[in-house]
Design a protein that fits this description.
Layout lengths: L10 E7 L8 E5 L2 E7 L5 E5 L13 E3 L2 E3 L6 E2 L5 E3 L21 E4 L2 E6 L20 E10 L3 H7 L6 H4 L15 E5 L3 E10 L3 H9 L6 E10 L3 E8 L3 E13 L2 E11 L8 H20 L21 H15 L1
The structure holds FE2/S2 (inorganic) cluster and fe (ii) ion.
């Protein structure tokens, strides 16, 4: 396990949207370790070290067979409890050495559309899973993907809580250039979560803008976003534009090292009877563009980890959400 500053332990980490755990095994890189996730015979997710005990190949490149996982290199087969049950090259009745079982089993569970991994020495405590909205596939359609940041997880989480950078970083994508004002309101918080709302204008093509002004309407389309954070690694960014647009972006930040974090995200919108061809690709591309805009500045932040001594950076009203995030992180370091 890498030494990563402020890394919370003895808690559940959201590590992958449930929809990304298909019939195939799934690689979960986390804090310098590679894990493999797959569903056992009962359909429950199980998690082990991704390294095959035979010659160290990556099991997530293998296949799932009847609730077992088969290594891609020499075909050893492991059941959902991690026991090696077949070594094809040695035939039936092969003698299995003691070290032939999978290692590092981790407690995992499914909750609110994500797979969660317990990190820590203490026993996994299901009562500490956060209370989150569920997005039924009957009502919501989704797009899911990932993004790798050259940044500490705390900087990535804060970038997903911070609206005051939108005017400066996302001009031309979703941020209006009419005003940089961005003060969060309706702050709500608990011991391990926080949320607040922000209003902002979306950019309009200039002709449309002029028409709106001539008609005495406002300068742009007004959007309202609720930013939420759930300890230790989940952000929800819920944006509404009047009655005609609603997008909920849920992002799990997986710490990798002091200077690398992987985002695994899913974006929900109300289910439509008809979608334009290529919608998913287009939607994924928009999110990648936005992440790349963020990445340009987030990767430049130093120190890598956010300072938990509040005197080391400067704080203003528009930073209230990142201040509250730091308070949670600080509290959890002690807990
Ligand atoms: S490395 Fe996995 S079976 Fe040989
Ligand atoms: Fe951003």
């Amino acid at each position: 396990m890498n030494q990563i500053t402020h890394l919370p332990v003895n808690c559940w980490y959201a590590v992958a949207p449930v929809v990304t755990l298909t019939e195939e095994p799934l690689l979960v890189p986390f804090a310098g370790q590679d894990y493999v996730l797959f569903r056992n015979r009962d359909g429950k997710p199980v998690c082990f070290s991704d390294r095959c005990p035979h010659r160290g190949a990556s099991l997530s490149l293998g296949t799932r067979e009847d609730g077992c996982i088969r290594c891609p290199f020499h075909g050893w087969l492991f059941d959902g409890g991690g026991h090696c049950i077949a070594v094809p090259a040695d035939g039936d009745g092969a003698t299995l050495p003691a070290r032939s079982n999978l290692k590092d089993e981790q407690a995992v569970c499914e909750h609110a559309g994500f797979i969660w991994l317990w990190l820590g020495e203490q026993p996994a405590d299901h009562s500490t899973l956060p209370n989150l909205p569920e997005f039924s596939p009957k009502q919501w359609q989704h797009v899911s993907n990932s993004f790798t940041w050259d940044a500490h997880f705390s900087r990535v989480i804060e970038s997903n809580l911070d609206n005051s950078h939108a005017y400066w970083v996302h001009k031309g994508t979703f941020a209006s250039q009419d005003s940089p004002l961005s003060i969060p309101y309706d702050l709500n918080k608990g011991d391990d979560w926080v949320s607040a709302k922000v209003k902002f204008d979306l950019p309009l093509p200039s002709a449309l803008k002029l028409m709106q002004r001539l008609q005495g309407k406002g300068p742009g389309l007004s959007a309202e976003t609720t930013f939420s954070f759930f300890h230790p690694n989940l952000n929800i960014v819920d944006t509404r534009v009047g009655d005609f647009l609603h997008v909920i972006f849920v992002n799990a930040s997986l710490p990798q090292s002091e200077s690398q974090t992987i985002s695994r995200w899913i974006k929900y919108s109300p289910k439509k009877a008809f979608n334009m061809p290529g919608r998913e690709e287009k939607s994924t591309e928009i999110s990648r563009t936005i992440f790349n805009e963020d990445h340009g500045v987030v990767q430049s932040q130093r120190p890598y980890a956010v300072p938990l001594d509040f005197s080391q950076e400067s704080h203003v009203n528009s930073d209230v959400l990142s201040i509250e995030y730091r308070k949670i992180l600080k509290r959890k370091q002690k807990g």
